[in-house]
Each structure stands twice: as structure tokens, then as C-alpha cells.
Amino acid sequence: MTERVDRSETTPLVLEARDVTKHYEGVTALDHATLAVSRGEVHALLGGNGAGKSTLISIISGVTMPDSGAIALDGDVMASSGPLAAISAGISTIYQELSLVPALSVLDNIFLGREIKRKTLGLPLTSDRRRMEREVRDLAADFGVSAFELHTPVSEFGALKKRSIEIVKALAFDPKVLILDEPTSGLEDAERQVLFGYMRSMRERGVALVWVTHHLEELFGLADNATVFRDGRTVATVPMASTSIDKLVTLMFGSDREEFGGGDTRKIAHLKPSVGRRVVLSARNLTRGTVVRNISFDVHEGEIVGLAGLAGAGRTEVVRTLIGLDSLTTGTVELEGRRLSLRNSTSAYRAGLAMLPEDRKQLGILPDMSTAQNISISRLSTVTKWGFWMSRRKERALADSYRTQLGIKTPDVDARIGNLSGGNQQKAIVARCLNTSPKLLIFDEPTQGIDVAAKVDVHALVRDYAAKGGAAILIASEIEELLELSHRVLVLKKGQIVGEVRDIPAAIEAGDFARIKSEVLTLSAAGQTS
Amino acid sequence: MKSSSPFARIMSIPGMPMTLVLILAVVVFQLLNPVFLNGSTVANFLTNGIPIILITLGVAIVIIGGGIDLSVGTVAGLSAGTTMFALVQGAPLAAGIAVGCGTGLLFGLVNGFLVAYLRINDFIVTLATLNVAAGLLVVLSQVRPLQGVTVPGFAELTKGSVFGIPTSLYIAGAIFIIAQLLLAKTVIGRRLYAVGISAQASNVAGVSVPHLRLFTFAASGLLAGVAGVLIASRLGAVQAFLGIGYEFIAIAGAVIGGITLAGGGGSVWAALVGGLFLATLQQGLRLNNVDPVYFSIVTALAIVFGVVFERQVRGVILRSALHRTALFASNRAKPAEQDTAIATIERSHDNGK
Ligand SMILES: Nc1ncnc2c1ncn2[C@@H]1O[C@H](COP(=O)(O)OP(=O)(O)OP(=O)(O)O)[C@@H](O)[C@H]1O
Ligand SMILES: [Mg+2]
């Protein structure tokens, strides 16, 4: 691709990555990568899992030092001396993995290292929380963080809210360059739109935005240009106006890949209808304080039940009680007719449940263990001799088979999982769940951070699992994904089931996708006044 | 760091730098005082050191699982007391040993139960049981003088030798081998490290965190019990305040061996090396006629030294590796950047343990 972007000739480049190379043990994360972003531009940074996007971002943000190459800000090469220097130079970053300090309040997190001080005894010792609150109150409210919540420790919130807090933190300081590494993963449609609104207004004010996403359909109408990485190299920079999803995907994965979904709903798997099938899980009157209220439902053999709802509707809370992580106030759960004790996750796993958690960094990976060890941990008996003696050979073989099956990109399954790219970590956790051969599998945002190619693979795995008679509960904030995978969707609101949409595969096949989608959305929002 | 030298790779094995320091310490003490490596001195020194090294191993297991056990010292003391008491009352040898080990195990189980199932902070729980055990030993020693055991075989546990090697060395060796296999090769060991790395994530993955916690405290208690039996055998008499302060040496040994208090890292080897190092240090000082009053000061300094040392050695290796890469790279590498980079690498390395 030789097309150059017109704007870059007229408007000055704000941010430039020149020939950046970064090696890690056994991996070339970046190989003479380049990136050029001008003032007032939304620049998409695209590439498959492990392409090197996050690595470049951490170099630009001063967290990582490149082996060679340079980062230039306003034409001057930055003497990158750490993240704080980058921040004060005007680079604001929303990292892919949540990076808030759990024990601090939301407000203190937002202002961490940049506190507004008040003079006590003539010295600027104490933070002026009142002023700090005033500065970000409106911004925070736009992302659903109330003034009260600003003073609550971050540890009290779920992954979704933390994501919003990260966004507020990055937007709060009028940066020159704003970098967003998969900012929308796990966000509701409404919140996405709010974020996009902010991105537009920042662009208007001349901020240069770098935006990493795997949701290619989001790009149109917002991104101006896109730079595509593949295996650490810059493949091309193209203006969004003259490209399409298919072209981008080809750039990302090479021409030998077939086309991918990308929000396309035509390729619905032919899920067998679930009528008359055996009930696998039967939940009755699940109640946990006020967050989960009187929830009853069944999941049948070979059926995927989707849970829809807005942020705070209680979807994650419901599945957490099923797997025994949170205790119920009242209610019972039966798995294949046997009552579950729900005392702890171990008995849930033993009974045949498994869960893919939404918060990969905190609840998913065991960062200091290898990929192989992360895959086997939920069911060690698959990699042992005599049931208790670990077999390295079996463990490697298991991990290698999932590595090929899911395309986990790592030089070695014995390498530390914390060093893998986000999407590849996610794939390993998917493998971990599948390895337990569960009777009921709970997916909480199964494809977050996964690239479009791998997403197709994971969807295929989920369907395959159901086709073989497995039952699943699915939470996905992306409604297209939810509908494409579910037989039936339960809509939650304020901890209660407010509606149900049945026979989704049939409806989609009949061309009713739009109707079903609006039905679910209406139900999720309905009763807003009640 | 593609071009890490064999030396750098060996040194990056946790506990390895400390092993070299241990060897160095032995050499230095040997030069200072040639009796140091004398056969009988070594045998004597090992029998003296073994109980505390076993306690170190126990604490290390708890620390790897992400907890802490402060009660080990006085529990070992009490176990020595109960063994003595049983034998003085006329119990046979096996029963006496069982009583001592059982005392330790019981305390471990109580600790574990309170921490794992009632979710009380382990620091608080074991601080409490530390004092309970200490108090019980005082009571016990007032009931009967804990000495004068003539049961055949008891003193031989530590004073006897087979093929010229002290008996207690066989016992300790067997325990260390079992612990090593348990931690490195079995399902329990795997789960132990998982819980230490992240109890939350382990819980979500279906690992039974409470069971594991219970296991670590039980193991630590049992090892303290065994240590107590050996102490009783070696001393032949148990004083009312036996064991107080041992927990400090044990935790210090674990830390010096390179076991991070954050949990999830470390090994049986690291505990052994750390424990041995402290024992060597004390022995060396003793042989060179240093007043025992200074031992605890030296131990404390050794902890600080050990922690800094582990970190520095790694820093130096990384630094040299970085310089090598920097030679090939452009001339961007200003000292300040290198330091940031080193700090970053070190951080990731620290996590990597
Ligand atoms: N600290 C590290 N140590 C070793 N390898 C690393 C480290 N950080 C990144 N890598 C490797 O560098 C490559 C690029 O990773 P990076 O996180 O930049 O990918 P990415 O494009 O952000 O992918 P994703 O879309 O999955 O987030 C990956 O192969 C990854 O395993
Ligand atoms: Mg990334």
C-alpha cells in the first residue's frame, strides 16, 4: 500500500513512531513498526492478537523501552523517561488491561499523581477532593459514575464500571494525544456511543487519537485513517473512506483468510431446536440481596441461553451465584436433577459447571504461571498420572492441542501467560473452561479482546460445544454476538427477569434479526421509569 | 534479552544467588577457623540447625500459598514439651513422638480452620496461637519438670548416627524430598502456587482455596511438631520459654532464600538454602567467639541484606544484558532511560518468579 493520507501532508504530525523494534525472549513484538498520527485525527491501530499493538502503545506511553527506533512528539524525539514524563508531555492512555489501584477511591485514582493540593499549614499536603470532584463530576456522570461513587474504592466495582473509570481518568486532563487500547471491550452500546461522542469532540479540539479495537464495524464514521499491523510490522496505512471491513481483514491476516463476520449476522449456525430436550440446569427463585431478585429459569441440553440487559442489570451477579462465588439469600439450583450446594466454586466445578469470568486480569489468568498451567488448572486430573502426579508431557500436549485449535500465539506453552497479548490470554482461559468438559458452561464476555479471526473460531467452539449436547449461559454486551449465539435470551433489569425472547435461530433465519434485536433492546430499557 | 549467557540463566533461578552466598560463607568461615568444616563440628552443627530448617520449610509452604504463620516457633517449643511430658509419664517412644507431632498438627489445623473457613486474618490468628502455645508450655513445665527421659532410642533420634551420618539428617532429608516432590510434582503443589499467585483467580477457576489454606497451615504445624520432637531429643530437657523467637529466624530464612512474602513464588530448595545460610552464619559466629547476644542483630541484618542482594544480583544481570542489546541499538539509550527500562524489566522479572 503506497497510498498516503492527505491530511498528514497538510496538518502537522503530532505523534510519530519511527522504526520501532522490540524483542522479547523468543518473540519479535515489533519489527521496524511505524505509525504517524496528525492533529485532530482519529487513527485506528488494527491487527490480530499479538500483532504488537499494545506493545507499541506501552512504548509510546513510556512504560516500555524499545530496542531501537524512536517516538516523536510534535516532531521532537521524546527522551522517554517513564510513564509520568509521557503523561506530562500530554499523552493520555487507556490501557487494555484495567490498571486502577483497587484500594483507592475512584476520585483518587483519576487524579493519581496529579492531585490538586490544598495548602495545610502553608504546605500543599492534602488533596483538595472537593475541587477534584467538581472538575470531573460531569464527565464522570456521562459514563455512569455518580458523584457518590467517586468516593467509593475502586475494588467495589465490576469490570464494566472500572472500564468507565479508566475512560474518565484518561479524558480528564485534556491530553494532546489520547491512546485507547480496546476501550469498548465490555461496554454497553449506550456507553460506547457516549465514548464515541467524546472522541469526536476531542478530535474537534485538535487532539490526536490512537484507537485500538477488534470491532471493525465501530470504525466507520469515526476513524479517519487506519494503520494495520501484522506480526509486529506495519502493513499499511489507509484512509477509512476508501476501505472496507473485508479489505482491513485481508490486511490484518493476509489474503489467504476467508472473510469474517464483522457484525454480519447471516452465518448463523444451525443450532438444533431445544424443545423437548432434557433440562440440564434449573434455577429457582435465585435471590441475593437486591442485586439478584427472584430469578428462575431452565437451561436445556444443547441450549445456549443468553442473558441480556444494561450495565447493572445483574447478569454477572446471577452467574456468580450459580458458580458458588457469591452466596444466595434464597433459591435453589439443580443440575441434572441434583440439587447443588452452591457453597463454593470447587463443588460447582466438581458438579460440572465452569465459568469464563469477565475480568480477565483479576479473575481470569494466573499471571505468573505458564499458558499450559493456566489451561490445566481447572481440571488437573486430565494431565496427571494416577490422579495426583503431574505429567509435564500430558500438560504440554493438552496445551499444544488447544494452541493449534484456538490459534494461541505464543512461542512456547511453557512461557509465562502474563506476557501473552490480551486476546491470546483470553483464548487460554476459554481453553481452560472447555477442558473441564462441563455440563453447563458460563461465558461472561467470552470474546473480549479477541480478534475477528479468532472470534469466529471461539464462536465455532461455543456452537460446537452446544451441538454436542453441552448447555451454556452466555453474557455478551455486544448484542449481535449474543443473538448470533443464543437459542433464547432472557432480559434482565435491576436483578429481575423482565422478558424472554425465544427461538432466536429460527427468527434470524427467517430474516428477522433486526426485529429481534430491537425487541431485546426495548425490553432491556423498558420499565426504565418503574 | 535474547542473548542471556548461561551464567545469567543459572543466576536467574530463584534461590541460586543465595546458594552461592552460602558457599561463600562456608569458605570464609573455614578460612577464619579451620575447625569449621571438621567432621564432628559439621555433624553437630547440622543436628543443631535441622529443627529450625524444618520450621523454615513449614513457614515457606504457608508463604508460597500466600499466607503467613507466626506460631511455628512456640508451637515447636510446645511440641517439644508435650513429647517430653508424655515420655516422662512413661509413654513408649513411638507414642511420645506421636504426641509431639500431633501437637504441632493440631495447632496447624486450628490455625488453618480459623484462617481458611472463618476467614480471620492469618497474622492475627497465628499471633494468637503463638501466645497460646507459649502459655501452654509454661503451664506444662509447671506440672512436671520436663527432663530426665530415659526411654531408649529417644536421644538417638538426634545423637545417634548411621554410617557416620547423624540420624536426624536422614529424617530431615526424607522430609525435604517428600516436600520437594509434593510441591513440584503433585496436584497439591500446583494448586498451592496457583492460590499464592491469586486466590481470587484460583477460586474462579474452581480451586478450593480454603482446603489449600488449611493444608498449608497443617503442614507448617506438623513440621513444627517434628522440629519440636527433635529439639526435645537433642536438649534432653525442655525449658518454659523454648521456641520463642524461632518464627523470626524461620521467616527470615525463607525470605533470605528468595521466597517473596507476596506468595506464589519460591521452592523447597529456597527454604533449605535460606535456613542453612542462617544456621551457617550463627555457627560461624559461635566458632569465632562472637557473643550470642549479637545473633539476632546479625540475623536481622542478614534479612535486609538477603532481600537487597537477590534484587541487586538480578539487576546486574539484566543491566549487562541490556548494555549488550544497547550496543546494537541506536544511541538513544541515555542512562535515565536505561534505569527506567531496567526497573520495568526487573518488575516483570519479579512478577515472573
Ligand atoms: N513482557 C513481555 N514478555 C514477552 N513477550 C511479550 C511481552 N509483552 C508482549 N509480548 C509478546 O509480544 C507480542 C505482541 O503483543 P501485544 O500485546 O503487543 O499484542 P496486541 O497486538 O496488543 O494483541 P491483542 O490484540 O491480543 O491485545 C505477543 O506475541 C506477546 O506475546
Ligand atoms: Mg493488546
Textual characterization of the structure:
The complex is a heterodimer of chains A (530) and B (353). Chain A has two domains: 13-258, P-loop containing nucleotide triphosphate hydrolases (Rossmann fold, 3-Layer(aba) Sandwich), CATH 3.40.50.300; 279-352 and 438-526, P-loop containing nucleotide triphosphate hydrolases (Rossmann fold), CATH 3.40.50.300. Chain A is built from 18 helices and 24 strands. Chain A is globular and about 70 Å long. In chain A, the strands form six sheets. Chain A has a six-stranded mixed sheet, sandwiched between helices. Chain A has a six-stranded mixed sheet with strand order 18-21-22-15-23-24, with helices on both faces. With 530 residues, chain A is an alpha/beta fold. Chain B has one domain: Orthogonal Bundle (ABC transporter involved in vitamin B12 uptake, BtuC), CATH 1.10.3470. In chain B, strands 1-2 form a two-stranded antiparallel sheet. Chain B is globular and about 55 Å long. In chain B, 49% of the residues are buried. Chains A and B meet through β4, α10, α11 and β20 of A and α9, α10 and α15 of B. The complex binds adenosine-5'-triphosphate (ATP) and magnesium ion (MG). Adenosine-5'-triphosphate (ATP) binds next to β2, α2 and α14 of chain A. Adenosine-5'-triphosphate (ATP) is lined by residues 24, 27, 29, 47, 49-55, 96, 409-410, 419-424, 449, 451 of chain A.
How much strand content do the residues of chain A show?
Answer: 25-35%
Considering DSSP H and I runs of 4 or more, what fraction of the residues of chain A is helical? Answer: 25-40%
Structural category of chain B: mainly alpha
Instruction: Please estimate the helix content of chain B.
Output: over 70%
Low-confidence stretches of chain A: 1-9, 258-268
What would the principal axes of the Cα set say about the shape of chain A?
A: globular
Radius of gyration of chain A: 24 Å
